[in-house]
Design a protein that fits this description.
Length: about 200
């Protein structure tokens, strides 16, 4: 049996278990970060303006009456308002690679020279969010696609920039994006998806 040295804690583990062992280090960091965010959410002061904005439908993504039906009661609504407020302040900007116009022009020429009969759609103004093996197990590629599409919307559509990710103006990292998805599920978006994930995306 082959053994390997963990690059994080330098513990010797069987090579076949190295990836799982290393991934657990990230889980521990995320759990600590989640606990810190939870404490900050719990300690966050209630702001009358955030409740007023919610009730008036500003930045809500659905009508007040529709949100009221899915939220259940005013206390749940208040908790979600605080989660949104806290997440907007604490989310981390994701790292990305700026895709320049020359690269897209080169890619277009290469695709046009192919002899295959296929259709390709290229869009400019999309930042590239690289997959990271240690972070992107499972649904990572879908979340990276959401980041890339969001980068396009933030750059090209003012109305999206004003509301996406709390109006921060940037694309958040995967952990923050997962928290945004959880808030959306709590607000009643994608009822079937929320049920299949047990209303939990993080962790």
């Amino acid at each position: 049996m082959a053994f390997s040295d963990c690059p994080f804690c330098h513990q010797i583990v069987p090579s076949s278990e190295l990836e799982r062992h290393a991934d657990n280090h990230f889980v521990e960091v995320e759990l600590a970060r989640d606990a810190d965010i939870a404490q900050q959410i719990a300690a966050a002061p209630t702001t009358l303006s955030s409740i007023t904005d919610w009730e008036n439908g500003k930045g809500s993504g659905c009508s007040t009456s529709a949100c009221g039906r899915t939220m259940g009661n005013e206390e749940e609504m208040h908790v979600i308002i605080e989660k949104i407020s806290c997440l907007t302040r604490l989310q981390i900007r994701a790292t990305f690679y700026k895709v320049e116009g020359g690269l897209l022009a080169l890619l277009r020429r290469c695709l046009e020279m192919e002899s295959r009969n296929s259709v390709t759609i290229l869009s400019d103004f999309v930042d590239h969010f690289q997959s990271v093996e240690a972070e992107d197990s499972g649904w990572g590629c879908g979340l990276r696609n959401i980041q890339m599409l969001s980068s396009h919307l933030l750059l090209r559509r003012l109305e999206a920039r004003e509301v996406l990710f709390g109006g921060s103006g940037f694309v958040p990292d995967i952990a923050s994006l997962q928290r945004w998805l959880e808030i959306a599920l709590q607000r009643g978006f994608d009822v079937h998806g929320a049920y299949s994930f047990n209303h939990k995306i993080c962790g």
